[in-house]
Structure formats: structure tokens, C-alpha cells
Design a protein that fits this description.
By secondary structure, this protein is an alpha/beta fold. The chain has 3 helices and 7 strands. Strands 2-1-3-4 form a 4-stranded parallel β-sheet, sandwiched between helices. The protein has a 3-stranded antiparallel β-sheet with strand order 6-5-7, with no helix packed on it.
């Protein structure tokens, strides 16, 4: 399996993603955003960082990079895509998932516990879990007015405001409050 790790100017987790995947025995390579995806791509990671800065909407400019057409086509063909931090914002801006990020209400860095429930266990990211399993992790938001709720976690790209159908591989995790109600984050 070859996983393409998309590198934008300002990416800062691309090397970490390649190293982590290699540690798991997965062949991974960095791919510059102006180049196409390798023909043997079986997975895609859009890493974190500050592509084009947070001057507009975070990820808005990178979403229009030439490689994103390839990423959208690959995702439509069933190739799994994982967006981490800024990569989640890029994925959202590129319409890989429905919805939008919201403005950080506090205008300060926040790190909070977020409760997650596995909504779809039929994905590469959640296959080791049972549907309905719950977990708690930390989520961060930054002080940038364009950075959205939970943007600092790898889980945001996996969130979908729609209920997954049996063939929908996008919606994998859903945030919920400690009382069990769905969370806007």
C-alpha cells in the first residue's frame, strides 16, 4: 500500500506522517501539492501546518491547489483520505466532507477533552473499533479567528453532520457532550 502525504508550503507534519506510516509498515511518500498523486496511491494524508497562513479561511487557498482535483477524484473512487489539523480544514474547504468550520468563540488557544463515538466502523481509521464505541481525547483550537472548532484534531475530517449509510465511508467519528448529546465541535 502506498500512502501519499500531500506537502504544501507551510506544512509542518508531513515528515511526521511519513515516519509514523513507515513505522506501521506502510509505504508512504511526500507529494508536492503542484504535482499529481502517484499512480499506486491507496491512501492520502493531508497533514497539518499553516499552508498559505490563516489569513483568509484556513485551508481555503490550499483547497484550490492542483493536487486537490486528484484527491477529490481518488476519494470519490473510495481511496481513504485523512486530514490532520490544517489538513482537515483543507479537506473541508475542498468539499471532501460536508459542513464548515466555525469561528473559535474564545479567541484564545484551548485544549479540552472531547468525547467521541464511532458512527461507522467500516473505514481504515475505525476498523479496530466496534460501532457505537466511545472514547475521550483532547482537542485544540487556536486563537486565529479563522480556525474552526476542533480544528487541531485528526478527528474533524472524519466528522460528518449526516448519518452514515452502509456505503458511506466518510462519517467515522462524531463528537458528543459528556451527557451524550451531539456536540457542535
Amino acid at each position: 500500500m502506498t500512502v501519499a502525504v500531500v506537502q504544501f508550503g507551510g506544512s509542518n507534519c508531513d515528515r511526521d506522517a511519513v515516519r509514523a506510516l513507515s513505522h506501521l509498515g506502510v509505504d508512504a511518500e511526500r507529494v508536492w501539492h503542484e504535482d499529481g498523486l502517484p499512480a499506486d496511491t491507496e491512501g492520502i494524508v493531508i497533514p497539518g501546518g499553516f499552508s498559505y497562513g490563516d489569513y483568509l479561511r484556513a485551508g481555503a487557498m490550499a483547497a484550490h491547489s492542483p493536487i486537490m482535483d486528484d484527491v477529490r477524484d481518488a476519494a470519490a473512487d473510495g481511496v481513504p483520505v485523512l486530514g490532520v489539523c490544517n489538513g482537515a480544514q483543507i479537506g473541508c474547504e475542498a468539499e471532501l466532507t460536508p459542513g464548515a468550520f466555525t469561528t473559535n468563540a474564545s479567541a484564545r488557544f484551548q485544549c479540552e477533552y472531547v468525547h467521541l463515538r464511532v458512527e461507522n466502523a467500516d473505514t481504515p481509521w475505525t476498523a479496530a473499533y466496534d460501532e457505537g464505541a466511545r472514547s475521550t481525547t483532547t482537542a485544540t483550537t487556536t486563537s486565529s479567528p479563522t480556525t474552526g472548532c476542533c480544528s487541531g484534531t485528526a478527528t474533524r475530517t472524519a466528522l460528518s453532520p449526516t448519518t452514515p449509510t452502509p456505503t458511506d465511508r466518510r462519517a467515522t467519528l462524531r463528537a458528543f457532550s459528556a451527557s451524550g448529546r451531539p456536540s457542535p465541535c
